[in-house]
Amino acid sequence: MKLSSTALLALAISSITATAYAETQSQAFTPVTVKEKSAQSEATGFVEGQSVTGTTRNWYANEQLKRGEKFSYNKNGVLTPTDRRINWVQGTIVKYNSGFTEGTVGFSTEVAAYNAIALDRDKEDLASRFGGAPGSREKAGYNRTLTKEGGDAVGQWSKLGLANVKARFSNTTVTAGRQNFSSPQVDVIGNRPLPSSFQGVSIHSEELENLAFDLGTFDRNSPRTEQSQRKFRTEYANGIVESDHVNTAGITYTPFASLTTSLWATQAEDIWNQYYVGATHVLGDSEVLSLTTGLNYYKTKDEGKALIGKIDNDTYSLSFGLTHQAHSLTFSYQEVNGNEYFDYLHETNGIYLANSLLSDFNGPNEKSFQIAYGLNMAEYGVPGLKFNIYQARGWGIDGTHYTGNGGVVDKGYDGIQKQDGEHHYEYGIGTSYAVQSGPLKATTVRATYTTHRASEFQADGNINEFRLVTTIPFKAL
Question: Which domains, and CATH codes, for the chain?
Fold first, then answer.
């Protein structure tokens, strides 16, 4: 991985800061040993270990496009422009988990019903973004409120969000069916009223202390705002090309209590092979001053039939977070080395980059920097209340050298050739509160306001967005 001089300078400054101010905390090496305790040996039985839990989320988002950009909605068969889009949906999950049966190999099941109710069904409010600035990627579609052809809201809908069976031997679990899965490349995304999930088979093994292994193969995803399942697509290509299978494997290693590392490889069949290296290290005492350092690196290369064209992309982010009691200050630098977007799988949160915000700051050859401040009011006698504010800037976006589409229009990332020196910025402010006790304990309320401004051909355009999200957990059994 090639680090720029800017990133190396940031690393050096942060290292000096940590040495000068952070109290020393134990960095003792923890050896990898075979676990003495088996999770399966503690199985209580299929019925005895069962539970019924869930959440209900009230999700409201109000967006306004700026600088002449417009959403569109169908008014009497005519596409009509509007600068505002509003979505208001109640999403509810009811999940049943059995316990594991007793014995050498235990079996269990997990089933979850997902339900969504559109609280705002006005067609004008549910407008779609059929295209931003010239050269931007397509933004068509209603990925917030499920709609029928023509733009009318589906008032209420349900689906099986999860439905799987599990087999466990010792500390190794095999899961088959529709399931949650979390990795830097195939990860459940939960930023809507309902989350995504994936159809396939996965293995999670923790037979060793400090070392975990994961394998997975998936052929479908269950999108956040759809009743059906779909093959996997990429987030930034043309939205048409699909992969028949996504295969992934990873290792998570914790050599010190303060250091977590991971290594992953994922194949989106006939699209790409993507490799990931990540590390998080904590130094010092937050009561005095602590430093959290994060590194994320992705290498992406086209694979097989290369259905979205040639890809050769190296992308990384470095972040340094200083924490003193209630206050935290984080600096993040991110860089894309490649003539195409840094891309990831649609309907996943497979982008563990520090500057993935409202914008992903992932344009071809883009560099970006973010500064963020957080305040935890628990230190001032109000546990559960937090505030945050950030600003991020991206520059040097250059797609003029992109040839990965082989000259075929609408293949791969066609259109980014117009991006020549594009730039943009984003800032946001947010607050959240988690109820600490009583019948609504663990209920969270979060409000955020975000602004994004961009040059002519940058993909994300000019938008203000306000979100208010309330999530209430419950337990029925």
Answer: 5-475 (2.40.160.10)
